[in-house]
Amino acid sequence: MSGAYDTLKKPLLTEKSLIERDTHNRYGFIVGKNVSKGEIKTAVETIFNVTVVKVNTISVTGKTHRMGRFEGKRPDYKKAFVTLKEGDKIEVVEATAK
Question: Which domain holds residue 59?
Answer without folding.
Answer: 4-86
